[in-house]
Design brief:
The protein has helices spanning about 1-30, 35-45, 45-60, 65-80, 80-95, 120-130, 145-160, 165-195, 205-225. The protein is mainly α. It has a single domain, classed as TorD-like. Helix 1 (about 1-30) runs antiparallel to helix 3, helix 7 (about 145-160) runs antiparallel to helix 8 (about 165-195) and helix 8 (about 165-195) packs antiparallel against helix 9.
């Protein structure tokens, strides 16, 4: 009986880690640069956000805003063509994060965030190298981009979901907790709130960042358990 309960607990933990990995992957895709994959991601936003909702329901997180993001996505999809939504969100993203005579109005890279740790980029690269996470050529020069940071958390949590080695799982969770605290929660909260207050931010982009912010807060608490 005890062995059965242990097996069930391990299975549940693996499923939870897999759901968490799916959430990180979805948020990473939606928050990637338009010149990379955002245009394609927002063409497929309905299915991506639906998968976010399914993963979130598997976690049974209280107070999640992913259901709100899903409802907003569904409403937008009923009123507009997906290619139009992709263009509008992409234009909003570029205006907020990628243009401006003195740099972008808001930073979607940790290194550029207000009060950022000057060594942030070097620190995340050391994390990547330690765990064997390889950046694609498109992001090699900006490893601290929010989309990449979230994708790395997907990488760690996915490996957690696949491992039966308790010591390895503990190490992966410790790394996720440290990375989340040092390189995500430390500045993404302010970013999400800043985007929420911008009239030039597309509502879907605002909702995505708010849902990401809330998810990271829950993650940091659960990873500390």
């Amino acid at each position: 009986m005890n062995a059965a309960r242990t097996t069930d607990a391990v299975t549940d933990a693996k499923l939870i880690a897999l759901a968490r990995a799916q959430l990180y992957a979805g948020f990473s895709r939606l928050l990637a640069s338009p010149e990379q994959s955002t245009a394609k991601a927002w063409l497929e936003h309905a299915s991506i956000i639906e998968r976010l909702l399914i993963a979130d329901e598997a976690l049974a997180t209280e107070g999640s805003r992913i259901a709100e993001l899903f409802a907003l996505s569904q409403a937008a999809d009923l009123e507009h063509r997906a290619d139009n939504i992709a263009v509008w969100v992409g234009a909003s993203y570029a205006a907020l994060f990628e243009v401006g005579d003195r740099g972008p109005p808001l930073a979607i890279r940790e290194e550029l965030a207000p009060g950022a740790n000057a060594a942030a980029k070097e620190e995340v690269v050391r994390f990547y190298e330690h765990f064997g996470y390889r950046l694609g050529d498109d992001y090699a020069w900006r490893p601290d981009h929010l989309s990449v940071l979230l994708e790395f958390m997907h990488f760690l949590s996915w490996h957690e979901s696949q491992s039966l080695d308790a010591a390895l799982v503990a190490g992966l969770r410790a790394a996720q907790r440290d990375f989340c605290q040092r390189h995500l929660v430390s500045w993404v909260n302010d970013l999400a709130d800043s985007v929420a207050g911008r009239r030039d931010a597309h509502p879907l982009l605002q909702a995505t960042l708010q849902a990401t912010k809330d998810f990271l807060a829950v993650e940091l608490q659960s990873l500390g358990d």
